[in-house]
Design brief:
Layout lengths: L1 H14 L9 H13 L7 H43 L11 H9 L10 H44 L6
Helix pairs in contact: 3-5
C-alpha cells in the first residue's frame, strides 16, 4: 500500500500537484477503491533475478569455503603422514650393534667342547628366540602406542582447527 501511495504521488505530481501529507477520509477511501479496482502492485521484474543471483553467490561462497576447508585438512594430513614417516623408524631398520642385541648376545651361552649336549643347546636357542620375539613384540607395542597417541593428538588439533574457515 505504501508503494501505491508513492506511485499515486508521482502520477499526481505532474498533473494535479503533490499529494497532501495526510489524507482525508474521502481521499483515503478513493485511494483504497482505486487499489482494489486495479490489481495489487507487482514486485519489480528484476527482483526475482536479483534474489536468485544472491542465493547463487552465497552457494558458491559456501562451496569455496568447504573446498578450502577440505584442502586444508588434506594438507595437514599429508604433513602429519610425512612427519610420521620421518620420525618413526621402520621395523627392519634396527642396527645390528644396538644395545639390545649386545645384551642378548651376552646372554647366549658359548658352546663348550663337550659340556652341553644338542638337546640342551636347542632348548636354550628356542628360549632365546622366544625372548627375542617377546622383546620385538614389546617394542612394536610401544611404537604402536606412541603412534596412536601421536595420531590422537593430530586428530584433536584438526578438530580444533576445523572451525577456522575463511569467510
Amino acid at each position: 500500500m505504501i508503494h501505491n501511495i508513492m506511485e499515486e504521488r508521482e502520477r499526481r505530481s505532474g498533473r494535479e500537484g503533490p499529494l497532501p501529507v495526510s489524507f482525508t477520509d474521502e481521499e483515503l477511501t478513493r485511494l483504497i477503491e482505486q487499489v482494489e479496482e486495479r490489481e495489487l502492485i507487482h514486485a519489480p521484474g528484476h527482483l526475482k533475478e536479483n534474489v536468485f543471483l544472491q542465493l547463487d553467490r552465497q552457494r558458491r561462497a559456501a562451496k569455496k569455503r568447504q573446498l578450502f576447508s577440505y584442502r586444508a585438512k588434506v594438507l595437514v594430513g599429508m604433513a602429519a603422514a610425512l612427519t610420521v614417516l620421518f620420525l618413526v623408524p621402520a621395523d627392519g631398520a634396527e642396527k645390528a650393534d644396538s644395545p639390545q642385541n649386545s645384551i642378548l648376545s651376552s646372554l647366549l651361552p658359548e658352546k663348550e667342547a663337550g659340556g652341553v649336549d644338542e638337546w640342551e643347546q636347542d632348548a636354550i636357542e628356542r628360549q632365546q628366540d622366544i625372548d627375542k620375539t617377546w622383546e620385538r613384540y614389546r617394542e612394536d607395542q610401544e611404537r604402536a602406542d606412541a603412534r596412536k597417541q601421536y595420531f590422537q593428538d593430530v586428530k584433536d588439533k584438526l578438530q580444533n582447527i576445523e572451525n577456522w574457515e575463511v569467510e
